[in-house]
Structure formats: C-alpha cells, structure tokens
Amino acid sequence: MANRINPSILAADFVNIESELGRIRSADLVHVDIMDNHFVPNLTFGLGMVERLQQVSPLPLDIHLMIDDPERWAPGYAEAGAYSVTFHAEATTEPVALARSLRQIGARAGIALKPGTDVAPYLELLSEFDQVLVMTVEPGFGGQSFMESTMPKLVQLRTAVQKTGLDVWLQVDGGITAQTIEIAAMAGADTFVAGSSVFGAENPAAQIGLLRERAASHRHGAGNLEL
Length: 227
Ligand code: DX5
Ligand code: ZN
Description:
It is built from nine helices and eight strands. Helix 3 (70-79) runs parallel beside helix 4. By secondary structure, the chain is α/β, with parallel strands linked by helices.
C-alpha cells in the first residue's frame, strides 16, 4: 500500500506561491483548500487561482472544496485539470451523482467528512469514490490540533476497502505532524495532508521525508497496534 504526502498550501506564503511550490517538489500532490466563507467561516481562493496553479505546479492538484453548492462549482475544478476534486458530504444531497460527473470529466472524485459526520452511509458507496477524506479537525483553519476521536472512522473505512478490494485512497487532513501521522497511518490512512507541519518546517523537503518514513513504518496491519 503506497503512502502519499500532500502539503496544503493554506500554510504557504500566498504572495510567493510559485517558489513555495518549488519547496515541496518531493511530495505527491499539492493540496488546495477552497473555502467560501459560507460552508466554513474562512475564505481562501477560487477557480481562477486553481487554473493558474495548474499551469505552474510541478505536482498534480488535490482540490479540497469546503464550499456550499458543490454541484455548481466542483465540475469547473475538474475541467481545469485538477487530479482530484473532493467535496463535502454535508454540502450535498446527491454525492453519487456529483462524483460520477467529476469522474466523467476525468478527475478522481473524493468525498470529505467533517469530524461529526458518520461514515456508515458511505461505506456501501465506496465504489463511487476514488478517495474518502476524514477530516481530523473542524474544517476552516490550518494549525489546529489533530482529533484522535475521528480514528474509528478510518478503521471502518480501511476494513471496508480491504473487504471490497477497491483502490480507494483514505485521506486525513488537519493537525498532521510527525507524531500524529503515526496514529492516522495505524488506523488505516494512506494519504496525508499536512499544512503547517510542512511549510512551517525549516526544511520542508526533510519534513516531507520524515512524514513519509513515519507513515510507512506505521502502516495499518503491518504488525502495529490497531485501534
Ligand atoms: C483545514 C484544511 C486543511 C489545512 C490543514 O480546514 O482543510 O487542509 O490546511 O492544515 P494543518 O496541517 O496546519 O492542520
Ligand atoms: Zn484541506
């Protein structure tokens, strides 16, 4: 099982974003947080920014939409060439239809769950998604503390993925550090978003390497303690 490290540019210097992208070349994907000041209280950037990032980024884009009305906006991110587009379960009543339209455009489709959202209804829909994002903080801001209380959802997801044999990535986002990544990896995550712990490090490349190593050595089911 491969692990992926996706730095979140929410913690980058927005004014020098192109050189910031250069500091994370050794990562797998660039995580881009889209916030609309409605679904979450914070506001970041939108489609125009992503279209430009798509032109300059050496890594594929992993779009995390923290927005209302994803039916209206999500397809545009897929059309812009994003590698994956993840919308929130709480923001739509038609997650399967939306995921299908994203896949049809050519993007990987992801569904995100806030810490308080139950995973059970989505376990039987796994074939409709390429990625499930378990939020490990309340969405909206970087630099918050990892919520270990969300880990049972990952265990359930990993068990369901193993049972079905589907290649669905299990992503965690929020408060991921060299310590908490071990907990998330053991619970079953394979795709790790890290904002402040990567861009706040003196040497982001070394931090990416460390996160990668810790995730690999604490892989779910590799004789590690499971939750
Ligand atoms: C929070 C965002 C995260 C954020 C993570 O709502 O979805 O992607 O950038 O930042 P850290 O790693 O600092 O918690
Ligand atoms: Zn995010």
